[in-house]
Every structure is written in C-alpha cells, then in structure tokens.
Write a structure and sequence with these properties.
Distance between the termini: 75 Å
Structural class: alpha+beta
Number of domains: 3
Order of helices and strands: HHHEHEEHEEHEEEEHEHEEEHEEEEHHH
Mean pLDDT: 90
Radius of gyration: 24 Å
CATH architecture of the largest domain: Alpha-Beta Complex
Shape: globular
Number of helices: 12
Number of strands: 17
Strand order of the largest sheet: 8-9-10-13-14-17
Largest sheet: 6 strands, mixed
CATH superfamily of the largest domain: 2-enoyl-CoA Hydratase, Chain A, domain 1
Strand content: 15-25%
Length: 400
C-alpha cells in the first residue's frame, strides 16, 4: 500500500505548482503518521472486509481527501479532473435563477438575488438557507453540486425549499431558469433638497463605466449629496471595484489588502487615479451586500468618505485560488483574507453601518420583489419614504 502514501504525498505537496512540475516533499512526522494510519486502515479493510472488491482505492482516496479539505474550510473543495472540466463548460452555457450563495453551516446560504431575476421576483433574502433543490437535500452539499442543481436549460423550472432562520418559516418555490442578460439600466435619480440616488447592482467593467458617467453628471450638479444603493450587490470584479473607489478617494489611498498566512505576501491595493467626486455620500447596505461591494463600502467608510446606512453586510471577504494537482484534480481553497483599511477582517464580520436601520423581514422581502432603484420618485415619493426606511434615513442625513 505504499503507493497510496505516495499519492497522498504528491497530492499534498504540489500545491502552487503546475501539473508538469511535480515536486515531492518529505512530510513532517505528524503528517507521515497520519498517512501511515490511512495506509493501515486500507490494508485492514482489504484483509478483513467481507467484500474487498468494493474497496476502490482511487475513488475512496479522493473522497477522503475531499472530506479532509472541506472539514478545514467549507469554502474549500477538491474537484476531480472531470468535474473541473465540466464546471467551466457548464457555467458558460447553463441558465439559472439569478442567485448568489455561500456554503455555511452545512447548507447553501443565500447572499443576494440578481436584479430582475426569478430569485428577486420570489423575494429571496440574504441569510435564507436552501435546504432542498427538487427532491435532493442540500445538507453537506458541495458548491459544485448546488450549482449543478440550480443551473439547467432555459425556462425549465427548478424547485427550492427555503428556510428563513430569522422567522423559522419554510417556503416551497418553483422558479424558471433564465439566461442572464444585461444588468437593469440604472440612471441617476434626482430626489428632493439636492439629493441624488444611484443604484449599484454589481461591480463589473460595464456597470462601473456607467457608474463613472453618472458620477461625472453628479459633479456638474449642485447637489447636497449622493446616495449609493449597494443593497443585494453580491460583488463582482475586483479591478472594477478598485476603479470605482477611485471616483471618491484621492490617488494613492488604500482600498484593501490581502492577508496571507505568510506575512511576507501581504499585499495592499490603492487608488490609481481620482475622479475627484467630492459631494457627500451615503451608502445603503444590507445582508445581501457582499464581497467586492463590501470592499467598496469599507474603503469609503474607513477613509471617512461616506456614511453607511442599513444593516450589517454579508461578511464575504476571502480570496480563493484553484490549483491543479499532479493527478489532474483541482484544489479550490481560500488563500487569503481581505482586510479593510482599518485592518479589520471582512470575512464573517461584514460592514457595520454607521446608522443601523432594520426592516421587518416581510417589508424587506417586498422591497426585494419590487427591485431596488426601480421607483419613480415623482409618483412614488410618499410610498418610498414610508416603506424604504433606510433610503428615507439616507435622504434625511444628506438633507441636513
């Protein structure tokens, strides 16, 4: 069974190296003891188990390694070569329901619903657990498995069972799969008393270019301030987020840093230009504000450039990498955590608003279904102020 030990050593020792550059490391005594225990276990099974032909060493080694990886971190995984290949192809062709999620507490947990998606129309909220998809329980499910269950042919429905830990309610939903289109068109809305509103639904290169145009327009107006709505913004592209912070912060201002296990790898990111937008800012966040959207909000909050209103954000601030191992499998693992300029973690902590404004769960669901930023201020003003309390608070802060 020595080949089993060698397979483990090779798999664990080539992290960070190309598949054609294997490098075998001598394990430390504790690792060698663990590998020896695994070998002894397999030998005992083959010797004593009543059906030794069922012991597929390669398959069970993969299962054991994957369980080891996922026990360390629920965001980590080990993909077989076939899974890695199919994942890339599947992600580029399949339709979905417009949902971002993370694996937490052994279940997929909703981060946010994409603007205009079936998930938004259903009022799915941050923090809700997907406990089943179709007839398949999602307890202990891998991200890959959840993705494959949620995606599929366009217009074919998918059934979800969703539990809300806030209320204890369980809902059964049947949602159509749709092909993601262009983000909902966003325009700078002019409210009362010199206050303007802009919805930032995600951070992509296209949306940030539209964002830039809107902020140039804002600079030309005599505004008392701008409200940026980051609610249910699940993140996007880091470079686009870094560019967006440059609209409001001086050149050379720290945006975020990456904190690795090795302190010598610590890396900071800074604004490389400045659009010099100086109007006062208020950011709206909620539990569906995550990842790059949290980086943006934390950078402006820590640099005293904006006040944050709403509820604590999701708390997703990790940098993950995929490493191909010598056998063709792919290790997906968090490599670093994002640190905000104040050097506090975003992962598991999120962004705490300067002014906390909470909503009843059903009121939040109604706002989600309606779609953030879809209101017509002239005709809906009274309704907006009465139902969207975080937005009403942001208006009052800037109007002062």
């Amino acid at each position: 069974m020595r080949f089993v030990v060698m397979c483990w050593i090779v798999c664990l020792a080539v992290v960070g190296r190309a598949a054609d550059e294997p490098r075998i490391l001598t394990p430390n005594p504790s690792s060698f003891e663990t590998l020896s225990r695994f070998t002894a276990l397999v030998e005992a099974l083959q010797k004593h188990y009543v059906q030794p032909a069922r012991i597929n060493t390669d398959w069970y080694t993969t299962v054991a390694l994957r369980a080891f990886v996922r026990a360390i971190d629920p965001e980590a995984d080990l993909l077989t070569p076939e899974e890695a290949a199919s994942t890339n192809e599947f992600a580029n062709t399949a339709a979905d329901i417009g949902l971002s999620f993370a694996i937490r507490d052994d279940f997929p947990v909703i981060i946010a619903a994409r603007d205009g998606s079936p998930a938004e129309n259903a009022g799915l909220l941050a923090g809700e657990q997907i406990i089943a998809i179709g007839n398949v329980s999602t307890a202990h499910a891998r991200r890959l498995e959840v993705d494959q269950l949620l995606r599929g042919p366009a217009n074919f429905p998918v059934s979800l069972r969703v539990a809300d830990p806030h209320t204890g309610a369980i809902r059964d939903l049947h949602l159509p799969r749709t092909t993601p289109g262009n983000p909902r068109t966003t325009a700078l809305k002019f409210l009362d008393q010199g206050v303007a509103y802009y919805r930032v639904s995600q951070f992509t290169r296209d949306t940030v270019e539209n964002f830039r145009a809107a902020m140039i327009l804002a600079k030309g107006e005599r505004l008392s301030g701008v409200i940026l709505d980051l609610r249910n913004n699940p993140g996007g592209v880091f470079s686009a987020t870094q560019a967006a912070t440059s609209f409001f912060l001086p050149q050379g201002t720290e945006v975020v840093s990456l904190d690795y296990a090795d302190p010598t790898l610590h890396t900071g990111f800074f604004t490389d230009e400045s659009l010099n937008v100086t109007v006062p800012l208020v950011l709206l966040v909620n539990g569906g504000t995550a990842a790059e959207a949290e980086i943006f909000a934390a950078a402006l909050q820590d640099n005293k450039r904006a006040r944050v209103v709403g509820t604590r954000s999701f708390g997703r601030g990790l940098y993950a990498t995929s490493t191909r191992l010598s056998d063709g499998s792919v290790l997906v693992v968090p490599t670093a955590y994002y640190l905000r300029p104040s050097k506090l973690l975003l992962q598991g902590k999120g962004v705490t608003p300067d002014v906390i404004v909470e909503l009843p769960r059903e009121a939040e669901r109604s706002l989600t279904r309606a779609g953030f930023g879809t209101f017509d201020w002239k005709s809906d003003k009274a309704k907006v102020l009465a139902t969207d309390l975080p937005l009403a608070k942001a208006i009052s802060l800037l109007a002062k």
